[in-house]
Amino acid sequence: MKPRVVVARVLPPAVMQRAQEEFDALLPPPAGFTLDELVAAAASHGAAALVVTGGVKLDAAALARLPETVKLVATCSVGFDHIDVPAAKARGIAVTNTPDVLNAATADLAFLLMLGAARRASEYERIMRAGWRKGFGFAENLGHDLTGKTLGIFGMGRIGRVLARRARAFDMNIIYHNRTRLDPALEDGAEYVDSLEAMLPRCDVLSLNAPGGSGTAKVMNRETFAQMKKGAIFVNTARGSLVDEDALIEALSSGHLFAAGLDVFASEPAFDLRLAELPNVFLTPHVASATVETRDAMGHRALDNVAAIAAGTAPRDAL
């Protein structure tokens, strides 16, 4: 018998086709399963595994409602803060994620946000959509070059290192802060700074690439934004929980920060609309991994983990 799987959200066509071909898969409706529907589907289908996305919240209470047949929750994401992993393990449910396959796409979007913020892309686009009938003077509406600037990366993991490679093509200087220093081969010429506070005053651009967690909640706040250079650029493709958005809005409104590029927010999708009202903020709706190639790869990686569990072997990406 094929392993029984419930897919909680609509995945790319190639992934859905594989799920049907290789597994006894119960596929979701177009809007996806609600939590109540997912629990009921897992029970009625006798599912051994659930394939979910970051939008499916499985806290301890939700996990307790799952039938005993469920032995794996495979999330199509790198982040797993939507799943209570200790509670899952306590119930004998393995949890896997999909690292590595979205590194390039996320780094690309981080660089898009960086360029968009530096070159005032949001302002220029609004001017064009409003009809652009008045020319600008030689010294008006100027952005900033990235060439020769210093990029500070907070969280020099897989994505941070790919971003650093992109930045080197723009002749940027790379500094970074991690909890621990990388091996020199992984640094690839980047300079380690032993504290965030020591790094911030040196950054022309700061990119957050650290995972969320209790130790990094609102790590960017009034005090840390004040430590940044006046006129610096702030980019976040990591977690909205890393940022005190009131403090960010103040720094942008006062001109202390030149601009920001943001893909993640404290509340999603109901983000703080004050950010949308600021002309010097370049915004995207949490889409860092949203390419056909990357989402296909994420879905297939999740199914690889399901296949491993079904075969009685350890999944590649067990948390």
Automatic annotation (TrEMBL):
CDD domains: GDH. PROSITE patterns: D_2_HYDROXYACID_DH_1 (PS00065), D_2_HYDROXYACID_DH_2 (PS00670), D_2_HYDROXYACID_DH_3 (PS00671). GO terms for molecular function: glyoxylate reductase (NADPH) activity; hydroxypyruvate reductase [NAD(P)H] activity; NAD binding. GO terms for cellular component: cytosol. Residues 112-288 form the D-isomer specific 2-hydroxyacid dehydrogenase NAD-binding domain. SUPFAM superfamilies: Formate/glycerate dehydrogenase catalytic domain-like (SSF52283), NAD(P)-binding Rossmann-fold domains (SSF51735). The keyword NAD applies. Residues 6-318 form the D-isomer specific 2-hydroxyacid dehydrogenase catalytic domain. Keywords: NAD, Oxidoreductase. The keyword Transmembrane does not apply. Belongs to the D-isomer specific 2-hydroxyacid dehydrogenase family. This is D-glycerate dehydrogenase. It comes from Roseomonas indoligenes. The lineage of its organism: Bacteria, Pseudomonadati, Pseudomonadota, Alphaproteobacteria, Acetobacterales.
